[in-house]
Amino acid sequence: MADQADHAPDPTPTRAPDIRRWLPAAYLVGLCLVVAPLLQTLGSLWPPHFDEATWRYGAVGIFLSAVGAAPLGLLIALGAAVVLGHRVILRTVGVLSIILTLLVLIVCGAFALDVLQVRSIVRPEVRGGFDLSAAKAVLMGLVVMVTSILIAIAAFRAATPEFRRSRRRNAAELLVAQPDGPME
Predict the structure, then answer these.
(1) Cβ distance 141 to 104 under 8 Å?
(2) Phi, psi of 15, deg, nearest 5
(3) Domain tally for the chain?
(4) Closest to 139 in 3D by CA, of 73, 28, 85, 64
C-alpha cells in the first residue's frame, strides 16, 4: 500500500505557464531576424560601388545568403500576433512580407544581369563554381519570395475578422451526429 501511495499522481493540477506574457518578446526576436540581414549586408558592403558589376554581384550574393532569416522573423511575429490578436501587427507583417518579396525580386532581376556581365570575365576553370554560387543565390531568393508571399497571405487572412468568423462557423459544421436526432 505504501508503495502505491508513492506512485500515485499528484491530485493538485499544475497550471500551464501563461505564454501570452512572453509573446511580445517574439516581436523583438522577429524584428532582429528581419533587420539583421539588412544591416549585415550594409556593413559588409560599405562603401558602395554601384558602378562595378563585380561589386554588385558580390553584394547581391551576400544579401541573398543573409536574407534567408527574414521570413523566419516575419513568421515568428505572425505567430505572436495571431495568438495575441493584434490585427495591426498582422497587417504590418503582411505588408513587410510583400515589401521583402518585391525587394528580393528586384535584386534577383538585377543579379541575373550582373551574372551575365561578370561571367564573361571569370576564368574558365572556375566558371563551374561561379555558376553554382549564382544558382544557389537565385534559389535562395526564390525560396524567400515564395515563403514571404505565403506569410503575407496568412497575415492578411488572419487579420480579416470575416475569415476568423467563417473558420469558427466551419468548425461548428464538423458535427456529424446530434444527440436528439438521426444522423444526416
Answers:
(1) yes
(2) -85, 140
(3) 1
(4) 64
Cell 512572453: give the residue: 22
> What is the residue type of 126?
V
> Quick one: CA dihedral 132, 133, 134, 135, positive or negative?
positive
Looking at the domain assignment, is residue 12 inside a domain? no
pLDDT digits (tens, 9 = 90+) for 116-154: 888 888 888 888 888 888 888 889 999 999 999 999 999
Q: Mean pLDDT in the chain?
A: 81
- Three-point CA angle 60, 54, 135, nearest 5°: 50
Rounded-to-integer distance, Cα 133 and Cα 111, Å = 12
pLDDT digits (tens, 9 = 90+) for 86-119: 999 999 999 999 999 999 999 888 888 888 888 8
Containing structural domain, residue 127: 23-161
This prediction has a pTM of: 0.72
Q: Is residue 98 part of a domain?
A: yes
Question: What is the Cα–Cα distance from 99 to 139, expressed in whole angstroms?
Answer: 19
Q: Give me the half-sphere count of Cα atoms (radius 13 Å) on the Cβ side of residue 11.
A: 1
55 within some domain: yes
